[in-house]
C-alpha cells in the first residue's frame, strides 16, 4: 500500500494598521525657522522671498505638468484620511525646476471631523 503525503502550503499576509497620527521626525538638515521667519535655504533655492509665498496656495509653486497628480493625491488624502508621500516638480521664481519630496497629512476638527489644516513636510531632492 502506497502512502501519499499531502503538502499544505500556508501563506500569511501581515497587514499593518498605523495610528491615525504619524509622528514625523525632522532630520538635522530640515528647514527650520526663527522668530523673524528667515528661511535662507528656501530663498537661495527658489529665488522667492518669504513675503512672496506667505498666504499663497502651495499649488502656485507646483510645476504645471505635475499639478493634476498632486491635486489627485491631496484629494485622496483628505477623502481617505491617509498620510501621502509624493515626489513632484516645483518651480523657482526664474521658472527653473527642482524636485520636492512631500509627506502630507490632514489635521481634523475634533468635533466635526472636517479638515482643519494640511501639514506638509517637504524636502528637496538633490540630483
Automatic annotation (TrEMBL):
It comes from the Eukaryota. Residues 40-81 form the PAS domain. Pfam families: PAS_3. Transmembrane segments: none annotated. PANTHER family: CIRCADIAN PROTEIN CLOCK/ARNT/BMAL/PAS. This is Single-minded homolog 2 isoform X3. It comes from Octopus vulgaris (Common octopus).
